[in-house]
Structure formats: structure tokens, C-alpha cells
Design brief:
Strand content: 15-25%
CATH architecture: 3-Layer(aba) Sandwich
CATH class: Alpha Beta
Number of domains: 1
Number of strands: 9
Radius of gyration: 17 Å
Number of helices: 7
Helix content: 40-55%
CATH topology: Rossmann fold
Shape: globular
Structural class: alpha/beta
Largest sheet: 7 strands, parallel
Length: 233
């Protein structure tokens, strides 16, 4: 049997790497996307069948070129996980408006570019999954999130539009709201007084996305939320 192909964007030391490991463990060949090849090199060596593709997903031409390379090297992807994220913090008076625009390009426009390029083959195959990692900024606008929350809200709405259009064609689209601080070295340092239960494990996020990607068609999810058991929500 031909191994299925999964594309993961935003492959860094946390959720992106955990996603790549989980799908590789499940028998997928994984296309690793990030802007810096050096960030991908070690993971490419660690995971049999994985391949690194330096790509700025906010650039439509780079997305098209990278998709062509993935199809040539690995085959047509049946799963896309858009995990790349750009963020900024500050009041609406403090942020540079161009920062909001840049974040919109990575968080929202990149999803559009990726879906436009990869979804048609999934529709033709009659199956596939497009998963997007988000957070509570997609659901609410809070002070000091003006440069970030609008882009995540737009991302979620775009994903919902994709889900309503692609679902009847056999392609499952889902949005994962991560209501937590992800357990990576820099967050451990920043919140070093916090107990372990304050953090969410990247591997646990990856396990949930694996589950969503393989849900039975009679019980597909769209809005999925994950948070630590001790989270006050």
C-alpha cells in the first residue's frame, strides 16, 4: 500500500514537531514546512519518510511551488495541518498596523492558499482532512490582542466556510482551539512559577488532532477545544 501523505506547516520545537512525529508514527509520510530549513533538518533525519520544505506559507507562489515538490516527492497529501502562526501583543494604539497585516497573511491567507492548492485533489479522491490549530483569540477580542485576535477569528471563519463547502465532498475540515500555554522551553522559562498542570503537552495536542483527522464520517467535529484539566475557563 502507498503511504498516505500529511503536510504540517509551522514545524517548530513544540506543536509542529509533535504533529510530525504523531503522523509519522501513524504511517504517514510527512512534509515538514517552515521558513528555515535548519529548523527542520534534525526532524527530517529523525523521521523516516519525512521531508523538509522551506516555505513561507504567506506567499502564494511559494505555496504552489512547494505543493508541486511535495506531490513529486511524496505524493498527493490527504491531510493538511495548518499550524503556522504569527502573533503580536500590544494595545491597538501601540501596534504597527503592518504587524496586523503580516499576521493576517500567515494565519488566514496562508490557509486560503494551502486549501486552494491541496483541497481539489482531496475532493477528487473523495477523502481528506484539513485541520487548523487555533486558540481562544479566535473566539474573543481581549485588550492587548488587537494585533492577533482579528486574524485568528478570521482564520476560524474561513475554516468554517471550507468545512461547509468541502464536507459534503468528503473532506473533513476542523478547527482546534487550544486554551492553554503550550509546554515548550521558552514558556517554561516565562511561567517558571507555574505547576505542570498549567501547561498543555504538544504530544497531547498532536494526539487529539490525529483523532480528529481519523473520525468516522458519521461523527465529524468542526469546533474542537482542548485545555488542561486545571484550566479556569
Amino acid at each position: 500500500m502507498v503511504e498516505p501523505v500529511c503536510v504540517v506547516t509551522g514545524v517548530g520545537p513544540g506543536t509542529g514537531s509533535a504533529l510530525a512525529r504523531r503522523f509519522a508514527k501513524g504511517g504517514y509520510r510527512v512534509a515538514l514546512l517552515a521558513r528555515d530549513r535548519q529548523r527542520l533538518a534534525a526532524l527530517e533525519q529523525e523521521l523516516p519518510g519525512a521531508k523538509a520544505y522551506p516555505c513561507d506559507v504567506s506567499d502564494a507562489q511559494q505555496v504552489d511551488k512547494t505543493a508541486e515538490l511535495i506531490e513529486r516527492d511524496l505524493g498527493a497529501p490527504s491531510v493538511l495541518v495548518h499550524n503556522a502562526v504569527a502573533g503580536a501583543f500590544g494595545s491597538f494604539l501601540e501596534i504597527d498596523p503592518q504587524v496586523l497585516n503580516r499576521n493576517f497573511q500567515v494565519n488566514t491567507m496562508a490557509l486560503l492558499y494551502l486549501a486552494r492548492r491541496l483541497a481539489p485533489a482531496m475532493v477528487q479522491a473523495g477523502k481528506g482532512a484539513i485541520l487548523v490549530t487555533g486558540n481562544t483569540s479566535a473566539l474573543r477580542g481581549k485588550p492587548f490582542f488587537a494585533g492577533f485576535a482579528p486574524t485568528k477569528a478570521a482564520q476560524r471563519i474561513l475554516a468554517e466556510a471550507l468545512a461547509r463547502e468541502l464536507g459534503p465532498k468528503g473532506v473533513h475540515v476542523a478547527y482546534l482551539v487550544i486554551d492553554a500555554v503550550i509546554d515548550v522551553p521558552w514558556t517554561r522559562e516565562r511561567y517558571k512559577q507555574k505547576p505542570d498542570e498549567f501547561f498543555i503537552k504538544p504530544a497531547a495536542i498532536a494526539d487529539e488532532l490525529w483523532h480528529v483527522a481519523h473520525q468516522d464520517r458519521s461523527a465529524w467535529s468542526f469546533n474542537v477545544e482542548v485545555r488542561p484539566y486545571a484550566e479556569n475557563w
